[in-house]
């Protein structure tokens, strides 16, 4: 009985732990991004003005505005994740408790039979799966929530895509090999 009570507390606080870890990672990632942006900005501005690529400076300034707005978006995504976790947890527990109390209360299963233990095991397994899924959802939404919100408003971050870099290198290598 004591172990089941402790496991219930673990299930209860697991999504909160996921939100906390994801929040720390998102804020750390924001700090690193802000540091890199502030470090690169003077050199990038000189490079863009010297090569006369004014469209690149506009995209660079837009990225700076987005970086400035990221803390607000991180807080919004944390609040939405907390609300969604509460909603998912409560709905899951309501459905789970209704289903499993139906089986145990209607004399379908006697209290000390093997089927009663199987139903108790399945009830605990459903609670565990629910806690893990809500934790994963919360972690994903807090960590990627600001990007998801920006995508809703039409901003696609033009970072380095590994597939684009590899295809560009392959294209340059094939052009050098053919002499074009």
Give a summary of the structure in a few sentences.
The chain has 180 residues and is mainly α. It has helices at 2-51, 54-105, 114-152, 162-178. It has one domain.
What features would you describe in this structure?
With 180 residues, the protein is mostly helical. The protein has one domain. The chain has four helices and no strands. The protein has helices at 2-51, 54-105, 114-152, 162-178. Helix 2 packs antiparallel against helix 3 (114-152). The radius of gyration is 26 Å and the shape is elongated. It starts with a helix and ends with a helix. The model is unreliable at 159-166 (pLDDT under 50).
Cα gyration radius (Å)? 26 Å
Our count of helices gives: 4
Structural class: mainly alpha
The low-confidence parts are 159-166
Order of helices and strands: HHHH
Number of beta-strand segments: 0
β-strand percent reads: under 5%
Distance between the termini: 76 Å
Estimated helix fraction: over 70%
What is the average per-residue confidence, as pLDDT, rounded to a whole number?
Answer: 79
The total number of structural domains is: 1
How would the global form be characterised? elongated
* Main beta sheet: none
